[in-house]
Amino acid sequence: MSDQDNILTPDLIVKKMYDNDDFSQWLGIEFLNVAKGSCSIKMTVRTEMTNGFNVAHGGISFSLADSAFAFASNSLGKHAVSIETSISHVKPVFVGDILIAIAEAQNVSNSLAIFNVTVKNQEDKTVALFKGTVFRKNEYWT
Amino acid sequence: MSDQDNILTPDLIVKKMYDNDDFSQWLGIEFLNVAKGSCSIKMTVRTEMTNGFNVAHGGISFSLADSAFAFASNSLGKHAVSIETSISHVKPVFVGDILIAIAEAQNVSNSLAIFNVTVKNQEDKTVALFKGTVFRKNEYWT
Amino acid sequence: MSDQDNILTPDLIVKKMYDNDDFSQWLGIEFLNVAKGSCSIKMTVRTEMTNGFNVAHGGISFSLADSAFAFASNSLGKHAVSIETSISHVKPVFVGDILIAIAEAQNVSNSLAIFNVTVKNQEDKTVALFKGTVFRKNEYWT
Amino acid sequence: MSDQDNILTPDLIVKKMYDNDDFSQWLGIEFLNVAKGSCSIKMTVRTEMTNGFNVAHGGISFSLADSAFAFASNSLGKHAVSIETSISHVKPVFVGDILIAIAEAQNVSNSLAIFNVTVKNQEDKTVALFKGTVFRKNEYWT
Question: What range defines the domain where residue C87 resides?
């Protein structure tokens, strides 16, 4: 039986990733939804995540989006590594805000895949728009 | 005397920012160099910054680069807010690695400025290439 | 009566832009749909648009997407200028292909707006994914 | 003798590409310099390249930068295809302007490479900043 016949389900891939992911745990990430090629996660912004004046550091919403992107892209079954990501911060994020990141595949080929991640706050307002591209290795999640 | 006559030096602007910046402090950022439109900072990667297997989460080198970008863009004298940033991760980062981020202005106009940030490790190898654009408000660091 | 009371309709703004836009005319752009904050256009790829082997130059799908982005962002009523755009080419484009670009606002604030543009071919396959940010001037289309 | 022993020189690779590249010829591209991993080209902006009011369409400086990026990335010896490119337009370009695009490798690995391209006008002023990533196939220019 080859590796390709043995690929874990999206849920198990993401669980395996998260269990080793100390920084996602530090962020306080919880899972809302995982499916093949998509993932929604949430977290609450704490004081130690701010860059002054109660506003979250740009790295926080990026990190949340990047985690959603990593989970969604690996959930396709092959090990996926980030090539290029971009983020536009469109609204400030404050201490106590609950952020939700929704990652969705836009295009998947054999060796590349592109995702959009939208980050929203508890009022369903978009706070950041993220786009990411992964390289998909010939290595499977088994 | 107007606000423009009262602008702080790059060093004082960055000190004021850093003193309020809890997340940059959590990252353990130290300053190597600050000048008008440029900034070099460093940090050491800790276990809690990894996403498994001792490799740093993509949000860590992004956050370091984003801090260098924020310091360098505000050091020009006006309050600067991030519009769009992108990062390419070109080499894995490990626990114990010492990262240096060097931010340099590429283009500055009245209301916009573009920066490149190169992130290197202790062996002077590039681990990430970051590009960022800020909107420069009509508000001065005084 | 102020300029803001006199803003042209999306259709008239785009018509005014297109009538002066020699390069969009060279591309052979036709309009499928124009509304406030969105725009769909199409064109056919000609031999002189290729970079060899009948494959379209990357600048062609970019230019089409950039035109859709310019029309959609100006259709909001204020003069809009491009700050930053990115494109991922996900499928080759050939001579004779009919490309459709669909631009849609993702986020609009007073001075900035972000758009996604999807470029598809005649088989409804995505060939390129484009993201763009404009600066919205305090100048109206009247 | 394997393909790898037979790789063309950067000059010959770029000549072979340009001879088939109808759109680069339409742009009127001339070569200033070609070396392994870098390339400088120039062109003059014509009326048919504008989007009204004598200002060049954003697709023109993108296309010039994208050509320089394609030549520089393929000059490394392997067939290279664009994964993701971004451009910031920082200064308007006018009819009659002479544009120079300078592409330089920032990071090269076995399967990926990242380039910066700076586009300047005849006054040596930067008009656009471009960043691009290619996938390097296991196919050589022979």
Answer: 3-140
